[in-house]
Amino acid sequence: ENGTGSAEEYGETLAALGQLHYSKGEFQQAELYLNQAIEVLQHINNGEHEELGTAFNNLALIEHLRGNFATARALMTNAIAIQQAVLGESHSYYSLRLVNFALMLTEMAAFAEAETLLNKALVLQQALLGERHPYIAAAYRALGVLKYKQGQLLLAEAHLRTSLQIKAQQGQASTMANASAYMWLGAVLQDQEDFQGAQLSLEQMMKIFRAQTYSGDIIGRGLTQMASLALAQNHLELATKHYTHALDIMAKEGIRITFAQVGYAQLLLALDQPKKAEPLLRLALSKRMASYPGDH
């Protein structure tokens, strides 16, 4: 019994360390601890352990950010199944797993499935937590991203602003989740040609990113959005600066760098440099074809 207890505490500690590194954008260190936690915790209580579900969830998010969508989906399915077995479906943690899964499905363009999960999560959260809980902010943020991907800009803006408002009321205005909401809000406002509003939103995003993480992928993704805004306003020198910086710091093997590759290629085409743009587009296409479904 003492040995089992010690193993459980060790596994929980590893899972907590993994979550800490994940929250800071230190994905390589997070992956190491999370895999170790899974190895320990899957042998306890037949694998029905809350922290095991959390470890699978966080590992799924890392694989998702890398563009390994099939792996991420399998890991998140495990996380949800464990959460159901341990806590049941009428629990706020279960709703968070649904939100995370919906974000993955949104990026894979499985919009109908994602919306079903988000609506289920939001109804559950409102019943359990009321209207102004940080978990509900996560659901609204995910809904904002979904509606943006579907081209419903006014709804996307409303959901993202609601998410940010809830987090601000809870004294959580400078989290990485908020930075993500600011990024997507900036994209929405850019598409509405509210360039000043987009600039303010993206400045808030970068302020949080630079304070919270050293991750080249995360900061580079933010710079890519800043570059896109500059390009939309024909500020070509500034766009070039942001795109080249992003390409320098983002992981070359990851999927996130394709946003910078495609954006910079578009800039090069605007500068009448198709020979420089073509290899970037072909590289991005190759990476995306290997990661996304064929009908994406």
Kindly describe this structure.
This protein is mainly α. Helix 1 runs antiparallel to helix 2 (27-41). It has helices spanning 2-23, 27-41, 50-66, 69-87, 92-107, 111-129, 134-149, 153-169, 176-191, 195-212, 216-232, 236-249, 257-270, 274-291. The mean pLDDT is 92.
List its traits.
296 residues; mainly alpha
Compact overview of the structure:
The protein is an all-alpha fold. It has 14 helices and no strands.
Question: What topology emerges from the helices and strands here?
Answer:
Layout: H1 2-23, H2 27-41, H3 50-66, H4 69-87, H5 92-107, H6 111-129, H7 134-149, H8 153-169, H9 176-191, H10 195-212, H11 216-232, H12 236-249, H13 257-270, H14 274-291
Helix pairs in contact: 1-2, 1-3, 2-3, 3-4, 4-5, 5-6, 5-7, 6-7, 7-8, 7-9, 8-9, 9-10, 9-11, 10-11, 11-12, 11-13, 12-13, 13-14
Q: Which residue ranges are poorly predicted, with pLDDT under 50 across at least 5 consecutive positions?
A: none
| Structure classification | mainly alpha
Helix content bin: over 70%
* Average of the residue pLDDT scores: 92
What series of H and E elements makes up the topology?
A: HHHHHHHHHHHHHH
Total helix count?
A: 14
Number of strands: 0
Q: How can the largest sheet be summarized?
A: none
Compute the CA-based radius of gyration. 20 Å
Q: Which percent band covers the strand fraction?
A: under 5%
